Amino acid sequence: MTNLPVRRRLARWLPILGWLPDYERSWLRADLGAGLAIAALLLPVGVAYAQAAGLPPIAGLYATIVPLMVYAAFGPSRVLVLGPDSALTALVLGVVVVHAHGDPARAMAIAAGMAIVSGVVCLVAGAARLGFVAELLSKPIRFGYLNGIALTMILSQLPVLLGIDVGRIMDPAGFRRFLHILLNAGWHLPTALLGSATLLFLLLLRRWPRFPAVLFAVVLSTVCVVVLDLAAAGVTLVGDLPAGLPQLSFPLLDASDLAAVLAGGVAVALVSVADTSVLSRTYALRLGQRVDPNQEMIGLGLANLATGFLQGFPVSSSSTRTPIAEAAGARTQLAGVVAALTVTLVLMLDSGLLISVPTSALAGVVIAAAISLAEVRGVVRIARLEPVEFGLSVVCSLGVVVLGVLQGIGLAIGVAVLAFLWQSWRPHWAVLGRVDDVSGYHDVSRHPEALRIPGLVLFRWDAPLFFANAELFAEQVNTLIDTARDPVRVFVVAAEPVTHVDLTAADMLDDLRQQLEARGIELAFAELKGPVKDHLRRLGVFDRFGAERFHVTLAQAVGAYLARHAEARPAASD
Predict the structure, then answer these.
(1) Do 219 and 345 reside in the same domain of the chain?
(2) Do residues 69 and 82 make contact, with C-beta atoms less than 8 angstroms apart?
(3) Which of 148, 191, 222, 390 has CA atoms 20 to 30 A from the CA of 237?
């Protein structure tokens, strides 16, 4: 027990120490099955993404093995799968096409350099504790993100499932093209039957989560291909894979490539950090776990650094393989280690091990994982309880599908921030009065029987005071004074909800004070928080008001008024 605090401190920087010593034997079967299932997808996917990025296929396998091993030690998420990602391939391709000039060795050096730059940026961001950006993601946005990812995965895999030859399309936002193909292109019947059977098999076995259904589905589909000779019928197979293990090397870049590699690496870091933060936080909440977003950046950074020095290219969290890992029953990052070791063994021993795996079966696996990823019940509940937040969730889903993952999330966050600003721009306010047999002062619109003191207005403002609502505040104060049934002597702002006053609002308060004083009216505050008073003091506004204008409680403010105006008696509200 004496070593537990030390282990916890070490686990902050080396998260594997948080779960490996407590690893339960009952988890091993699930992690082994999930690792093998992930590996069955990693081989063809790694090759495909490398080709999409303009790199030799072997680079995709290096970028598959290395990050899984590194993240298992340094990543805080128990289920997140790192590797090549479609969102990054376009960024890598954009630099490689312009600067590599068709030279595979130079292309790999450029891509590795981008991975190293990305890794450094992520490490700096993690060390600077910038992981708080993930806190911008509310539950509706997370649900919208998951549903958008699920729909994108389904649409992107349908042509493969049905045997429609559209080539490799890595753009996750290209769903309109897929829909056009589905409506106008013919299906390949043997491929469609095999892929659909795999999908149906996985959906039927969802009620038994401990059964390694994904692994069995891939094996059974491969057996069908061999026994029925479906390759001769035109069913597309994974095919032969390249061989060779990664070697430690430093990418040698031309001076003319440095600026592009630096800019591309920073762009990759921004994309991968945003995508990984969203996916990691989403799965942590989904599985009832907790992840440190700053350690997430560090784990991502180290994975990219190692991948860059071992002949790979930039990696990020995978929104395709992660749900597959979860659906296959992965309990810890040991599943990723098993997947990495499996890919390594295939490269070392026999690169033809997965030659007969049908790509339509892999598409069925991805679609089944996407269906399990979708959050339907949560969105239905939000629609019933909070229509505005339901709209945010729908905007995020459609944004992810139409614009891409990051653009969709950015759009939803922007809309959420605007909605928050609108609520603060036009906040709730209330005039307060005293209610018999109820302590404190309450909104007279909710308590018409509340008693009010002639000449005294108690006004509650339920938001921070800042540039967007400062003029509204002043207008409302003047309106209440002008429409009061008795001449107002003192106007007290019940300021407990006011958590901040910016410079614009502070100047407005000082101008309002002078205007009201010219009319013989005193402007005062009650229950204003200490940090806000300190801020007004730094701005000089507190001293111009005078300390006597800032009351600790509303009761104190009312007592001070009655002491000066003894003739005032409470009156019922109109």
Answers:
(1) yes
(2) no
(3) 148
Flag the least confident range among 103-107, 376-380, 398-402, 451-455. Answer: 398-402
Question: Is residue 424 one of the residues assigned to a domain?
Answer: no
Q: Residue 51: its pLDDT value, please?
A: 72
Beta strands 429-434 and 316-317 are unpaired
Residue 572 has pLDDT above 60, yes or no: no
Q: How far apart are CA 493 and CA 498, in angstroms?
A: 10
What mean pLDDT do residues 523-538 have? 96
Distance between CA 281 and CA 294 in Å, rounded?
12
Average pLDDT over residues 73-96: 84
**Residue with tokens 């407005």, as numbered in its chain:** 508
How far, in Å, CA of 534 to CA of 521, rounded? 25
Q: Based on the fold, state whether residues 255 and 216 are members of the same structural domain.
A: yes
Q: What angle do CA 32, 33, 36 make, to 5 degrees?
A: 85
Q: Judge if 478 and 526 occupy the same domain.
A: yes
3-state secondary structure 414-429: HHHHHHHHHHHHCCCE
Classify burial at 410, counting beta carbons within 10 Å of its beta carbon; exposed 0-12, middle 13-18, buried 19 or more.
middle
Residue range of the domain that includes 97? 4-417
474 and 345 fall within a common domain: no
Q: What is the mean pLDDT of the chain?
A: 84
> Do 170 and 160 meet the contact criterion of CB atoms below 8 Å apart?
no
Question: How confident is the model over 176-222, as pLDDT tens digits?
Answer: 555 555 565 667 889 999 999 999 998 998 877 667 677 788 889 98
Contacts of 439 (CB under 8 A, 6+ apart): none
